[in-house]
Every structure is written in structure tokens, then in C-alpha cells.
Hints:
Helices cover about 30% and strands about 20% of the residues. By secondary structure, the protein is an alpha+beta fold. The strands form three sheets. A five-stranded mixed β-sheet has the order 8-7-11-9-10, covered by helices on one side. A four-stranded antiparallel β-sheet has the order 2-3-1-6, with helices on one face. It has a two-stranded antiparallel sheet with strand order 4-5. The longest helix has about 40 residues, at about 5-45. InterPro entries: Poly_export (IPR049712), Poly_export_N (IPR003715), SLBB_dom (IPR054765). This is Polysaccharide export protein. One of its GO terms (cellular component) is pore complex.
Amino acid sequence: MLWQNSPGKKIGQKIPRAIGIMSSCAHLKTSLLLARILFICVLGFLFSSCIQHRELLNFSEGEFPDSVANTPPLMIIQPDDLLSIQVITPDVETSAPYNLFPSNTNITSSGGSRPLVGYLVDATGKIEFPGIGRMEVAGMTVEELKQKLQTGLSDLLINPAIIIRFINFRITVDGEVNTPGSFIMPNERVTVLDATGLASGLTEYANRTNILIIREQNGERQFGRINLRDRDVVNSPYYYLRQNDYIYVEPLPERTATVRDQTQRIVQWGSVGASLISLIFVIFSR
């Protein structure tokens, strides 16, 4: 009896209990560590495709210029342009033969809208104008063509007034915009902001820092890029658009997560789920 109540026996009983407690603490620490690692992995997976607020803003970098020349570039007439040329004189009947009517026009249509009536610049850069004949217009500005017509008609009409406009001023907006497509503009004063507005704005995955503009000028194809987050973008030579410009808004890298193969996404989520189940099993089995 004395031996059973001795201090040695009590110590012997406490040692296994202490070992068990220490083992439980070690298992708990291991489980907590695994839980933290899995939690970090899940957060990294969930937020890998998040877009930062600053990536959604225009005009957020640099300084605004003190002043900006509010003058769009001169439009250059090119082959396939459709021109509206109106000759005006005090006597309407005198100028009538020099104005187009539906019976003798080049007509195109745009998405079911009313026909566009005008002079089509052919592949050689020429048009056929009443009273003057075949004349080369490609490479000229609107003002230069106006002066040329006034000179050519000076022997036929008294002080004719000439009004010239581009009818098929078309731009195409593609990429990360809400409504990509081609648009015919009502006037020649068009900016890249107007273009993205016509396309219902940029998506949340649009890369505003590297918008590509493809332009055909003097028979050559030019490539320019602009940064809409730059406050000095209004001074870019590509800020004002020209006829037939193509605007491509490239996606941010985060866009990849939304269009990748669905099987791959299922496998990733399955792996996360399997890891979570395994962790729960380890925690409760100990």
C-alpha cells in the first residue's frame, strides 16, 4: 500500500499524460499550420484574377497639360472614301446639274440605314465630276479639293460655294469593349474616347495603357498605341481618329482566368476541395 501511494508511482502516471498532451499540442500546431497554408492557397486562387481599382481609371497618371490645341488633324482623301460634294449658287437651277441625285449616284448602305449618296473615290484616287470630268482627289485635303472645284467651275458658274464632307467616315472598335463593331461617324471630329463610347465603353478587363490603333495613310499601314491613363494622351497624334481607323483594346492578363478551358478550372477547384477535405479529416482524426 505504501508503494502504491509513493511519489514515484504518481510521477510515472503523469509522464504518459504529459506526453499525450504534448503530442496533442504538436498535432494541433501541425493542423493549424496546414490550415493556414491551405487558406493562403485558396485566397491566392480566388484573387488571382482580381482587377485593381487604378486599372479601371482613365487619366490617372502624369500631369494634365497646361493647354491643348483643340484642332483635329486635317483629313486626307483616300481611295474608297465616299464624298458629299454640294455646289451652291444663288440660282438653284444653275447649280442643280452639279449636284448628285439618286438616279446617278454611288450608293452604299450601312446596317439597313438610309442610302449614302456621294462621289466614290476609286482605286486610282479619282472621281468623275460633272462639268470637269475625271479628276484626281486622293492625297488632297477637303480645303484643297474645294479650291480645285471652285477653279474648275469658275467658267461655268458665278461664285459657286462648295461644301464637302466625308460620308463614310468609318471606324472599327474591337477587343475589350462592351459592343465591338464598325461605326459610321456623322462628322470628322472623332476622338478615341468617342470611339470607345460608341462601343458602350471599356470592359473591366480592358488594358487602358496599351490601346492599338491601326491606320492607313498614303497607301501605308501605320501602328500607334495610346495610354488612356496618361493625362497627356490628348496630345497624342492618335487621339483624333481618321477614316477607316481600327482600334483594338487588348485584355489585361487577369482576363485569362475567365476564358481558360473549363475542364482545367474544374480540376483546379477539385484539387482545392480535395485538399480541404483531407485537412478536415486529419484534424478530426487526431
